[in-house]
């Protein structure tokens, strides 16, 4: 599952629970990241397998000039495969962190190529929405507050976004209620 609650919110906070303004740690923390279908170990295996498969036709022409007609384009193809898979990994380096305090919600997005975005709003005014249709993806989940609407978990699968929405809804309701 490409999201994880580091600190899940299972109970309502105490009425005198300190908030972000007092420097308290968050009541709940969520980390979300894109799914990787090819792990780093698989990436190394694919490059190694491509190299081994290139050696099969090249080995028949060792000692002739024809070896260069096979070796140079083959190595260029392996280099291109390495570069494109590496670019896919770099473009998918996304981490979204959601922290919930009794008085504040903060969403931080660490994107590819060092891009960074942050949003925060008063917990009381935050609304959570799911858009079954009309968003860039089905079941598009957004948080709205402080004059902005921000997406969360758009890179998750179609069945994970509704689960995330339900878990976020429960966490926000618990954080707003007091014992």
Tag the structure with descriptive keywords.
8 strands; 2 domains; PH-domain like; DUF2244 domain-containing protein; alpha+beta; 179 residues; 24% strand; membrane
- C-alpha Rg (nearest Å): 24 Å
- What is the rounded distance between the termini? 32 Å
Count of helices? 3
Q: Using DSSP, what is the number of strands?
A: 8
The residue ranges in which pLDDT falls below 50 over 5 or more consecutive positions are none
Summarize the amount of helix as a percent range.
25-40%
Record the strand order, biggest sheet. Answer: 1-2-3-4-5
Mean pLDDT: 92
What is the CATH architecture descriptor of the largest domain? Answer: Roll
Looking at the structure, the CATH topology of the largest domain is PH-domain like
Look at the helices and sheets and give the structural class. alpha+beta
Q: What oligomerization state is this entry in?
A: single chain
Transmembrane segments: 42-60, 66-85
Organism: Sinisalibacter aestuarii
InterPro entries: DUF2244_TM (IPR019253)
Protein name: DUF2244 domain-containing protein
Compose a concise summary of this entry.
With about 180 residues, the protein is α+β, with helices and mostly antiparallel strands. Helix content is about 35%, strand content about 25%.
Q: What would you say this structure looks like, in words?
A:
There is one protein chain. With 179 residues, the chain is of the alpha+beta class. It has 2 domains: 115 residues, PH-domain like (Roll), CATH 2.30.29; 52 residues. The strands form 2 sheets. A 5-stranded antiparallel beta sheet has the order 1-2-3-4-5, with helices on one face. The longest helix has 26 residues. The mean pLDDT is 92. It holds the Pfam family DUF2244.
